[in-house]
Amino acid sequence: MPEYSSPSADDAALAHVKASTLIESLPWLKRFHGQIIVVKFGGNAMVDPDLQRTFAEDIVYLRYAGLRPVVVHGGGPQISKMLDRLGIQSEFRGGYRVTSPEAMDVVRMVLTGQISRDIVSHINEHGPLAAALSGEDAGLFEGRKRGVEIDGELVDLGLVGDVIGVNPEGVMAQLEAGRIPVISSIAPDVDEPGQVLNVNADAAAAALAVALGAAKLVILTDVAGLYSDWPNRDSLVSVIGSDELRALLPSLESGMIPKMAACLEAVDNGVAKAAIIDGREPHSILLEVFTQGGVGTEVAPTDAH
Question: Vertex 50, ends 52 and 214: CA angle to 5°?
Answer without folding.
Answer: 30
